[in-house]
Structure formats: C-alpha cells, structure tokens
Design a protein that fits this description.
171 residues; 4% strand; mainly alpha; two-stranded antiparallel sheet
Length: 171
C-alpha cells in the first residue's frame, strides 16, 4: 500500500472517530482511538448492542441521530433497497441500503462478499455515513443529493422517481 493510501486511511479513521464524539451516535461507549481498529480499510467496532429490536421508527431515529444528511431521502432509500425491510439481504446481512462492499473507503462491513454484511443494522447506518462523507460532502440540498444518487448509486434509471414517491408517503 502506498504511503498516501495509508495516510488517507488514518485521516478517515480520525474523521470517523470525530463524528462518533461530535454527534454522539449510538456509539457512546467508544472512548479512545484504541477502541476502533482499522485493518485494510475495514472499521472494526467493539460494540455489542443491548438487544435493540428493529423497527422502521427506531431505524429512522438512528438515521437522524447519526448526523446523516437528508435523512428522509436515506430512509426512502432503505425502504426501496430492502423491499420495506423484508429482503433477504436485509434479514441476513443487516444491509438495508443494498450497499456493495467498498474497495476504496473504510467500511463497517464484516464480510468480503459482493454485498456488505453488518453485525447490526446500526452498523449499516454508520457505513452509510462514511459513504455519504466520502461522496456527498459538498452536496447542499436534497435535489442535488437525489441527482448524485441517480448518477453514482442507482442502477435503476427511475431510482429518484421511486425515492420521491416513497418520500411523499413518509410525510
């Protein structure tokens, strides 16, 4: 690995840690850098959650607490990508976003398969935050964000139309 790649990985790790402390996401048990391990761009978290039963309401609350931009769009994505939280990918991998295993950014995915796999659905929210911080940092409004999703996230040419339809139902 080139020195610049190592440096970028270390900077990303510190950015992730900074977000943990600033937004006090569900990871309030992380107290020091030593609590997080990054190996080959995989972020390993020492957290074992108290049993938090999944519900769409709890999921949306966690998105809001995480500091993710455009939480309504992100919730619509999770509903669309997971078939209203009924897909096998969500049930088996705790992956509501249909996230692929990233190759160029840190991740909380615990598997090397094509699709990301998480220990807990809350880890998928953190991974989404990392994705968003990597690709959507400069996006200022919801319409720009939807355009970004259409161009780099979605395979379906009607993706943003579907998201908007779901978002209207969320009101």
């Amino acid at each position: 690995m080139r020195l610049s790649s190592i440096f970028i990985s270390i900077v990303m790790m510190f950015m992730i840690i900074d977000v943990f402390f600033k937004t006090q996401i569900i990871y309030d048990r992380i107290k020091t850098i030593e609590d997080i391990t990054v190996i080959k761009d995989t972020v390993y978290l020492p957290i074992k959650y108290d049993v938090v039963e999944f519900s769409p309401e709890e999921f949306y609350a966690s998105i809001n607490e995480s500091g993710i931009k455009f939480p309504k769009v992100v919730m619509a994505q999770a509903i669309l990508e997971s078939g209203n939280f009924k897909s096998e990918l969500f049930k088996q991998n705790s992956n509501p976003f249909g996230m692929m295993r990233p190759r160029q950014r840190p991740t909380t995915s615990i598997d090397k398969e094509q699709y990301a796999k998480y220990e807990h659905w809350k880890h998928s929210i953190l991974d989404y935050w990392i994705w968003q911080h990597s690709y959507a940092k400069t996006i200022k409004n919801e319409e720009e964000y939807l355009n970004l999703l259409q161009s780099i996230y979605a395979e379906d040419k009607n993706y943003t139309k579907k998201l908007k339809r779901i978002m209207r139902r969320l009101n």
